[in-house]
Specification:
The protein is mainly beta. The protein has one domain: Neuraminidase (6 Propeller). The chain has no helices and 31 strands. It has a five-stranded mixed sheet with strand order 4-31-3-30-29, with no helix packed on it. The protein has a four-stranded antiparallel sheet with strand order 5-6-7-8, with no helix packed on it.
Length: about 400
C-alpha cells in the first residue's frame, strides 16, 4: 500500500494552506473499519473478546468512516465518505444491537462531499460537520447536517466576512441546543481560527485568538457542557495549542512541546470542563515517530507517557469519565502492513494497550480515526481498513 499526506483523520477536505502544517500519514485504501470495545483493565492488555461485525456500504461504493458518536451503550451514529465513479459522497451509518444500517444523507450535487465529525446527544439529535465542493463553485465550503431521528437535513453556515474557504473540522454538542464546530478560514492568504456555534436554530461564527502570523488550525473540539468547550490543534509544524470557551469568550493556551521534530494534536475529549485529554503524534518529516498525550490540569497542560509503541499516531480519543479514556490510531512500524490499528485505554492511573482482533483472511492494514465511549465499558472506534479496497470490517467487544 502507498501512503499520502492527509489534512486530518479521514482524508477530509482542507484549506490549501493547511498542507504545510498537518502531517498525519495514512493508507490510500478506503474501506470502512469499525471497532467496538470495552474499557481496559490495569494490565498490559484489555480483557474480553472482540467479535467481527458487518458494516454495509452503498452498492458499488468504497468508503471510510471518520467519526462516531454514541449517546448510549447500544446506539451510535458514524459518519464518513463513500466513493463511486470518481464522485465523493457523504455517508452516515447507525448502529444498534442488531447491527449497522446505512442512513440516507442529502446529495449536494458536487464532485466532492465528506462528513468528518459527528456529535449526538440523543436518538433524535445529531450534528455532523464536513465539507464539499459544489458544481461550478471554487474552493471548499463547510457543511453541516442535522439528524432529527428520521432524516438528515443540510443546515446553512454563514461565510466569514472578508474570508474564503471556511473549513470546519470537528463538532461537539454540549446540550441538545448547543453545538460548536471549529476550524479556520483564509484571509489574505493567512489562516483565521474560527468557531461556529449552533443554538438550536442558527449557526453564528466566533473568532478565536491566535498567535500572530502563525500557520495552524484547531483539529478537534470537545464540549462537556453547553457553556464549556476545549479545542486543540497545532501551528507552525512544531507547536501545540488549546482554545478554551467559558460561555462568553475563547482563550488561547500553549501546550508544552518537546524540542525538535513535528507535532500534531488530532483529538480531544473532556469528561468535565476542567478535565480534558488530547492525543496526537510526533513526526520526523512525514515519518511517524510516536504518539503524544496531553492532559489539562488546574494550572495548564502537561504531556504524559502512554503505552503505544514507537511509530504510533493517535487519531481519536473518548473519555467516559476522568478515570476511563480510550485512544485509537495507527502504527506504521510494519512495512508490509503499512499501518495497523492501535487502541489503548486509561484507567485513571496508567495506560494499557488493547489487543485488536486478528484480521480476516486476505485483509491487512488498518487505521482507527475516531472513538466514542458512552460508558466505561462500551466504546466504539471507526476508521479505514487497508486491504482489499472494497471490503468493510467491523469488530465489537462488550
Amino acid at each position: 500500500m502507498v501512503g499520502l499526506p492527509r489534512m486530518a483523520p479521514g482524508n477530509r477536505i482542507a484549506l490549501s494552506w493547511e498542507a504545510s502544517v498537518k502531517r498525519v500519514v495514512v493508507s490510500v485504501a478506503v474501506v470502512i473499519c469499525t471497532v467496538v470495545f470495552g474499557a481496559a483493565s490495569a494490565g498490559a492488555t484489555a480483557s474480553g473478546t472482540w467479535r467481527s461485525q458487518h458494516v454495509p456500504r452503498p452498492p458499488g461504493h468504497i468508503g471510510y468512516l471518520n467519526s462516531v458518536s454514541c449517546w448510549s451503550a447500544g446506539s451510535c451514529i458514524a459518519v464518513g465518505t463513500s466513493f463511486n465513479n470518481g464522485v465523493q459522497y457523504t455517508m452516515a451509518e447507525h448502529w444498534d444491537r442488531s447491527g449497522w444500517t446505512l442512513q440516507s444523507t442529502p446529495s449536494l450535487g458536487g464532485p466532492v462531499a465528506t462528513l468528518t465529525s459527528v456529535s449526538c446527544t440523543s436518538a433524535t439529535n445529531c450534528m455532523a460537520i464536513g465539507g464539499y465542493t459544489g458544481a461550478g463553485t471554487s474552493g471548499p465550503h463547510s457543511l453541516a447536517e442535522h439528524w432529527n431521528g428520521a432524516a438528515w437535513a443540510v443546515q446553512s453556515i454563514p461565510e466569514p466576512a472578508g474570508g474564503t474557504e471556511l473549513g470546519l473540522d470537528s463538532v461537539s454538542c454540549g446540550s441538545p441546543t448547543s453545538c460548536t464546530a471549529v476550524g479556520a478560514y483564509a484571509s489574505s492568504g493567512s489562516p483565521v481560527l474560527v468557531a461556529a456555534h449552533w443554538d438550536g436554530t442558527n449557526w453564528t461564527l466566533q473568532r478565536m485568538p491566535f498567535v500572530r502570523f502563525a500557520l495552524g488550525a484547531p483539529s478537534s473540539v470537545s464540549c462537556p457542557t453547553a457553556r464549556s468547550c476545549v479545542a486543540v490543534g497545532s501551528y507552525n509544524d512544531s507547536k501545540l495549542f488549546a482554545e478554551r470557551w467559558n460561555g462568553s469568550r475563547w482563550a488561547f493556551q500553549e501546550i508544552p512541546t518537546p524540542a525538535g521534530q513535528y507535532f500534531q494534536l488530532n483529538s480531544v475529549s473532556c469528561a468535565q470542563p476542567q478535565n480534558c485529554l488530547a492525543v496526537g503524534g510526533a513526526f520526523n518529516g512525514p515519518q511517524p515517530v510516536g504518539s503524544i498525550v496531553a492532559r489539562a490540569t488546574a494550572t495548564g497542560w502537561v504531556l504524559e507517557k502512554d503505552a503505544a509503541p514507537a511509530q504510533t499516531v493517535l487519531l481519536g480519543v473518548s473519555c467516559a469519565s476522568d478515570r476511563s479514556c480510550t485512544a485509537v490510531g495507527e502504527n506504521a512500524a510494519d512495512p508490509v502492513l503499512f499501518h495497523t490499528g492501535v487502541a489503548e485505554s486509561w484507567n485513571g492511573t496508567s495506560w494499557a494497550m488493547q489487543a485488536l482482533p486478528v484480521p480476516q483472511p486476505d485483509t491487512r492494514g488498518a487505521s482507527l480515526s475516531g472513538a466514542s465511549c458512552a460508558t466505561a465499558t462500551a466504546c466504539t472506534a471507526v476508521g479505514v481498513y487497508g486491504h482489499p479496497g472494497d471490503r468493510p470490517l467491523a469488530d465489537r467487544k462488550g
